[in-house]
Write a structure and sequence with these properties.
heterotrimer; A mainly alpha; B mainly alpha; C alpha/beta; A: mainly alpha; ABC transporter involved in vitamin B12 uptake, BtuC; two-stranded antiparallel sheet; C: alpha/beta; Rossmann fold; 2 domains; 10 strands; L-phenylalanine transmembrane transporter activity (chain A); transmembrane (chain A)
Amino acid sequence: MTDLLELAIAGLMSGLVIGLAALAVTLVFGIARFANAATGDTMTLGAYATLGGTAATGSLIAGGAIGILAGAAAGVIAYATVFRKLERRSPVAALLASIGVGFVIRAGLGLVYGHGQQVFQLPLVRPWRVWGIRIQPTDLEIAAAALATLAAVFLILHATPIGRQMRAVADDPDLARVSGIAPRRVMIALWALAGGVAAVAGCLLGIKTVVAPEMGWDMLLPAFAAAILGGIGHPVGAVVAGVLLGIAQETATPWVGFTYKIALSFAVLLLVLLVRPRGLFGRIEGVR
Amino acid sequence: MDAYLIAIAIVTGIYVLMALGLNLQYGLTGLINFGHVGFFCVGAYAAAILASRGWPAAATFPIAAAVAVAAAWPLGLVSLRLRDDYFAIVSLGFSEVVRLVATSERWLTNGVQGIAGIPRLFADLSGTTQALAVLALLLVLNGLAILAMRRIVASPFGRMIEAIRDNEEAVRALGKDPARFKIQVLMLGAALAGVSGAVYAHYIGFIAPEQFVPLVTFQIWMAIVMGGVGRVSGALVGSGLLMLFLEGSRFLRDLLPFVSEVEMASVRIGVVGLALILFTLYRPQGLMGDFTRR
Amino acid sequence: MTLVLSGLTKAYGGLRVVDNVSLSVPSDGLVGVIGPNGAGKSTLFSLATGFLAADSGTVSFDGRDLTAVAATGRARAGMVRTFQVPREFTHLTVRENLMAAAPGQAGEGLLAVFFRPGAIAAEERAIAARADETLAFLRLDAVAATPAGRLSGGQKKLLELGRALMTGARLILLDEPFAGVNPVLIEELSARIRDLADRGVGFLIIEHDLRALTRLVSTLHVMDRGRLIASGAPAAVLAEPAVRDAYLGGAAA
């Protein structure tokens, strides 16, 4: 039982990371209307930038801020140079281009940092024991950072004019255009936000595990699965689905083994698309 | 040098076989298959496992094709009714799961260590003659595939898959079920990738899960996008360009000793990425021009 | 009665886009549906042809209940639709567009393609001959070898009608066949539709262009905000005050 609880806690941690990644996916999918496969590599960028920033400034907080800025900048640059020009084309064109964008980011990181694994040099802390369950203090900090990020995103979406405009575009792009929302500004804000969120996800994943060139790409499938499970374009859904998926993956590990964790995301992805394509919370959306 | 050129030609031939399959799927039918490497992997492992147990190549090739087709069938059955972009994501996930299976099922695939010592084709020949025999086999396989492709393009079946590519809703409005055609196309393309994988396994002699990453899929995408979407000649030209690029980057590294192999690997990923972006933006129909029939 | 729609309803959220609509089209009838933008005409079409699932109501064709049958099945049963924005097969020639529509082709099976080339060639000749007849009937023979993507808007509407004819449909549902078509071609198209009705093909036509439609159809239905507000002979229907308010008043404003 304790083992299972510890797995559930580990699942909650990786679930928060998946949830953040899924949030980045669902924001773009809901507003720019395509599945952004560069999300994973933007996460990796965020992790490396945080690592570099931390080394340069000596502060993890400052490093994290640099990571977020790097992710946001990558998002905006990708929008300005690639995705803006594909707005009138099919979602598939943008999806294919986003794979290219991801490769370019990964190539750049590989050139700068090499292909080896790196770790955040954090002081080792003895785990706490609460009713016999081991709890890592770092986990609490990661969870706090994830929750703070979520709070910030929802604050932006619901309490700022640009956030409200984003949600209006997500609901109905044509109506939004008619009612005089400047799509360009909204899109730039969207890409900055999605890039920043992806960077946080990557940074937290890097702190929890290791920083490596493929780390973000490997999170893409769980992120897509959670975004679809949560209902495309539904931020709360993406986070909830991410957490559920994370817990399911970790608690299933004793039975399916470590490597098949990712396969679980695939199964969830397929099952949701077939059985309930609008996900847990989504509106009716044509997927067939 | 001769041996080198023959080796290049063989690897190009392996790519062409895969590119022909993807061209049938994407170029002619509009299927966004992001998991092509999965079928290649399945074919390679099927051939390697059987050949290591002493099966002759005459058996491993058809079985490699059949196993790839058998993998495509359920995938198509459950996911071809989904929207294009969802199918793309699902197929990408499929190829990742195939790789996970190759990594995890050690009893069958020897896990991350991979399968070494896969018997070569035409093992009783030696040196250049053996390599030429492999090349001849590939030429025959590719020739057959191209003939089959031409037959399909000129047939009512070919007309219907192109109609599906142009407008799926209209096909449904005429009372024809696009999924029935798409699943056959998925299976045909998978068969080509499976055979390609079998040749690869026998030729290279060693396979491991790390060789079957999504990058391979997107290299083939780059090839058909460069060569010309929807044209049989596009698969040939594109694979040639792909090979030129992959080998060229190796030459470049010989010329530039200060560039490490790791850096060059990154450069290759970057170039594939850049090609995907630029062609999507500026030449969606590829270098060889627009979709054409015949 | 060939096509019978009864009580069709479709709602999005709280909004009833199509609200309890019943109408029927006799086997050689020419029936029109008009209404202002957003009245629910296209949605009604999609419900009738199975491109959308109705929340309630039934669709029957030739006495067979098709409510649970998917779009492809309904088309195979003999009721074929066209689209408001033409959906031609862009890269196929006009003749190939028509040939693709022929039902039950053996050549659409992969095995036959490789093992029965002779039978397929004969089948293709027969289909090509029918396609050429249809093209001549629609006055499209001059562009038979042109890729369909290069046709004018009006020609594309004719092409869609041609494809529907090739399926052997007994009821054709035309979604705004006159929109964006020049007046000469409208006359041409109307004449073809009348010819076909004389041969026993039924038509259900949605249209915005009131004049062309009222001269063509024998029965006219008017939709407004999801409901049928009037039905009957065109002249009588257009004289009704409710129709003048909903449609003509709206058009004049």
